[in-house]
Amino acid sequence: MPQAQPELKKISADVVCFLQYMEKRVFCQLNGNRKVIGILRGYDVFMNIVLDEAFEEKEGGEKVPIGMSVIRGNSVVMLEALERITDK
């Protein structure tokens, strides 16, 4: 008999863990050479991220405020911490 819900797989060790980046200012490079800087407030297993107090950095150095934003994981090329990360 088929199940109504598909079985969820357990999260493996190769899933990206951003816990040490939480509440830190990060630089996020996106597809299309877009650059966003903000405070990491959340993420999920698909690498979707939530940035707060975010702004987009344009080509000429212009900074456009965008506030809180959700960035889809498949558009993230690189994520870099702009604050010191310490092991706890």
UniProtKB/TrEMBL annotation:
Domain Sm per the UniProt entry, residue ranges: 13-85
Record function comment: Plays a role in pre-mRNA splicing.
What family does this belong to?
Belongs to the snRNP Sm proteins family.
The record's SUPFAM superfamilies line, in alphabetical order, gives:
Sm-like ribonucleoproteins
Record the organism. Answer: Penicillium rubens (strain ATCC 28089 / DSM 1075 / NRRL 1951 / Wisconsin 54-1255) (Penicillium chrysogenum)
The alphabetized list of GO BP terms reads: spliceosomal snRNP assembly
Task: Please give the InterPro entries that the UniProt record associates with this protein.
Answer: Lsm7/SmG-like (IPR044641), LSM_dom_sf (IPR010920), Sm (IPR047575), Sm_dom_euk/arc (IPR001163), Sm_G (IPR034098)
Identification of the protein by name: Small nuclear ribonucleoprotein G
